[in-house]
Amino acid sequence: xxxxxxxxxIFDIDPYVxxxxxxxxxxxxxxxxxxxxxxxxSSEAVAAFCEAGDRLYRYPDSxxxxxxxxxxxxxxxxxxxxVCGNGSDELLTMLAQSYAGPGDEVLFxxxxxxxxxxxxxxxxxxxxxxxxxxxxVNVDALLDKVTKKTRIVFVTNPGNxxxxxxxxxxIARLHEGLPENVLxxxxxxxxxxxxxxxxxxxxxxxxxxxxxVMTRTFSKIYALSGLRLGWCYCPAVVVDVLNRVRGPxxxxxxxxxxxxxxxxxxxHTAKIRAENETWRAWTSxxxxxxxxxxxxxxxxxxxxxxxxxPAHNAESANAFLLAEGIxxxxxxxxxxxxxxxxxxxxxxxxxxxxxxxxxxxxxx
Length: 364
Ligand SMILES: Cc1ncc(COP(=O)(O)O)c(C=O)c1O
Fold this sequence. Notes:
This protein is of the alpha/beta class.
């Protein structure tokens, strides 16, 4: 029997595995598996979302003008260089589709966000991975892997699932080492959490080059994962490309309204950032005191390493926590089988997590 077949390479794609969202046997669930923001969105954003209900019979503003202006004002950027998307995933996919194809290579670092190999293959290109150095992106290793076929380099900065980051000088060194025809995509999904003075999400590089794009999301610090809203900051030539290929109404009317209100509510964002700092530091300290190896993180999650003893390894810890209703993320698919990625939740959630891992540690 003949049937339609997808392009070569589609069946080489391993579907993206999302974080667990349910613990069937537990009385309550603490979800620390998808780096969402447990404090929730700005009440202004929720109100704007609800008000948008009255306008659902109209298509949204195709150019998302007010939202782009608010993003530009909030971040000190040029609104003309901003393109919004249905989550930053959509923008990453459009970039891969637009700049890479069969015979091309798409390069990224060893423990990167798992969407990069998927969108590379979807574009028909070959994903290429460069080794990291102690859970941190290695600029020299990336540059070593650049060939004549390289079209895009994706760098998650700060990294997911590692929580580490590269300073602006290292990103600039990477950019300098790349041929001008290679697009450098700086994925700043967690940029708003970073307090380090030597960090930049990359908008400064975008402003002085034609081959750098910075992607950002409302799914993390703005706590709007369910709405699907992302944006990117790009040179005019890339804006032109994305505006040719994106759906004309790719960002819904409620998403535009809520995103605009969220970005204006700087008090709420500052509160989330401060809470995250407090509970990330507390959780890291408590888990280290229990003997766990916690990687330094500048994000809203931590990577915790477990022993190789089958009773106390990452798989057992994940199962133990799941039975207690605490959902974390295994990092086997990210090439880090001995660890769990744990999102920073509320104070109460972090206290429960630490207490549960203390019990896990004591188990014979
Ligand atoms: C590094 C990184 N980039 C992009 C995304 C996708 O974000 P969005 O929800 O905007 O599609 C995520 C989500 O987890 C992420 O961790």
